[in-house]
Predict the 3D structure of the following.
Amino acid sequence: MNALAPTDGLGPWRQFLCRACGLIYDEGQGDPDSGLPPGTRFADIPEDWACPICGVTKADFEPYERRAKSAPMPVSPAPQRRPGVVIVGGGVSGWSVAEAIRAGDASLPITLVTACDGGRYHKPELSVALGRGLSPEALRRETGAAAAARLGLRLLADTVAVGLSPERHALRTTRGTLPYTHLVLAHGARPALPAGLDPALCWRVNDLAAWSGLHSELARGARTVAVIGAGMVGCELAEDLARAGHTATLVGAEALPLPELLPEQAGRRLLAGLEGLGIRYRGNSLVSGLSRQPDGTVALTLADGTRFAAATVIAATGLATPSRLVRSAGLAFDRGIVVDPATLRTSGPDIFALGDCISLGGQPCRFIEPVARQAATIAGAILGRDHLGYAHAVPVVRLKTRSSPIALHGTPVAGAPWHVVEDSAQRLAMEQRQNGQVTAWLAA
Amino acid sequence: MPSALALRPAEDRIAAAPDRPDWTDAAVRAATEAIADGPLSAAAAEIDRGAYPLDILGRLGSAGALGVHLDRHGARIGLSIAAMQAASRACGATGFLMWCHDVCGLYLEQSDNPALSGAVLDAHAAGRTFGGTALSNPMKAFAGIEPILLRACRVPGGYRVSGMLPWVSHIGPGQYCGAIAGVVGAGDTISHEIMFLLACDQAELRPCPHFSGMEGTSTWGVRVDDLFVGHDAIIADPARPFISRIRGAFILLQCGMGLGVTEGSLDAMLAVEESLGHVNQFLEDRPDTVAAELAELRARVMRLAETPYDGSTDYLIDVLDARAQTSELALRASQSALLHQGARGYLMSAAPQRRIREAHFVAIVTPAIKHLRWEMARLSRETLPQSEGGRA
């Protein structure tokens, strides 16, 4: 995207960083999807504008200065003498903890262990990046090595955490055993694939590496793509594929998409929006198997025996937190690593966890908005600083389907009745009530 | 084929060995410890220099220490590991020979080939005949680390096998080992692999160069040239499903060696505690530290030994992790033992310098630490489509 040069006499275009999710608002590019044309100064953005990725408001943005792309600063690659903090996970959660610790302590040794290359990117962008014509290079904000040098930490990239001895404060990895004073688990969740789906025949988009593989397959021209699973990620990907010029079929288990989250009226609006983009929705369908056809396409067999083919198949069938590492170490696990909701301490001594891998009261919470606050809480505890603690609030759920954007507030209860507040051609507003109090509301 | 026996609670196991009622857990443990503390301790230095202790292995076999891991004797993998640990506490080379022998027995039993799982296995399990394993190369080949060295061609009634394996232990004239060859099909590609029992008398055994220790393991280069392998000698065809079924037990059993070398090193540290404790207190990896880690690791190994045929990836990673940790701990403990003993441990007749070489062996024998980490990394990766695969 080429931005026009500023003519308003206010100097070069500036950029603003969303503190919650890391999205960068560039004045030169604006946010056309939200009605902000290129060249909209940040000061001129209406106060009710929301981050297009995570939905926080304008007040949560701060000026962003792009870091000069310089050679990495020399950082000692030698093993550190003092054990220090070990962080497992190179996604936004892991890096957020590293940033939060460094903000309070310049010298505490930090080692970040990650199974990927450690490159920093903004994960929510993965479900809107095809339609925006972004490349893997454009999505990667900073290489792992550059981030490690900037933060003065030791990065063990392409390294898997395989074993944990809580009493001895030792983490075993595929590059050796690391002693630690504090351990932070931020390894996220992994796509949960139903048994009938061959992992070699369907993509899952949960990290930049997987997205990059999908991107290179799709880059060779418009294709037929089947998206299995009509949850948030499935709906967003289907729309993104359609916007990128592909022929998308969305396969959902129920009559309408997002049935566990949305009442029927909202589901209909969502479906109408998706169909308006040319997406075919196959409802009430469960995929029981995938097979490679002689022509190179993949055949999807549905539970009722019908079959259809697609050149590319994506499974968006949910996430599950890997449990082997923590279970074999004897830590409490209940659909995620069990943490104290105020301190984010696990049941193991000096072990914290945050982000997609945790569960609070038996519920995983896989949204990006709470991560920065979770990281600050953990950093405060590790550094022995007073900290108010983490107060969990259910984040606003925003469906990044521009065809019919939906925002969901509060704590919706599946199966409980929804009441229509407004149902016009322009807007649908509904709410759930309990004992006369509004407990959840949505706008579509 | 999951082994039902392996999932049975411990108290039922003794009844599972009706033909050897004398091989109770307590009896096997006591007899092994008596052999380890007596003749094996006395012979350890000599074995390290080259004496092949077949007599001691025979005694261990008749005591049950080489057979109790088999389904027919209760699938007591944990007891087998404990026996191997007891022997390795005295002599790492003998612990390694026990492992070679144990897994060969596993191949024979799990083959379901009546020609191998009857009298041949009975003699083997009781230590009346001896044989080892030549799976270092194929295990690495299956993990994508190196190419397979033995090649087989299909012929009427079986296969003909040729090739050379650089070093195979616990073999000799009249002995045997489990081996794997890649079957060469059309276009000189390998269609699949076969596993078979290789009789040493049909192969050429070539002396190996000198190793820095553990010379009494009867280790040879094995060369076969157009060797006929008939159905009676086939352990598995194809070999890969068989190997993936026994791989957990194969690797887990090795932990007995590292645990024993660590325990022997601990003995050496404690032996000088009274006289040298006032200066040894300044060393890392003190006896209490090593003992605590050994206890934790051993408990984990014993838990894993309850379900040796659990086919899940998570279980296999747990086994690989425990095996890697036994290597790391044996290295640290043996190093510390020598530092604890000082010059007296550096004497060529002293146990600690031998322990260091044994620990190095534990860490480099297949699967070596680096292989274990490679495999754990591989098993942890998500399978994704190849983006070149489809068409627009």
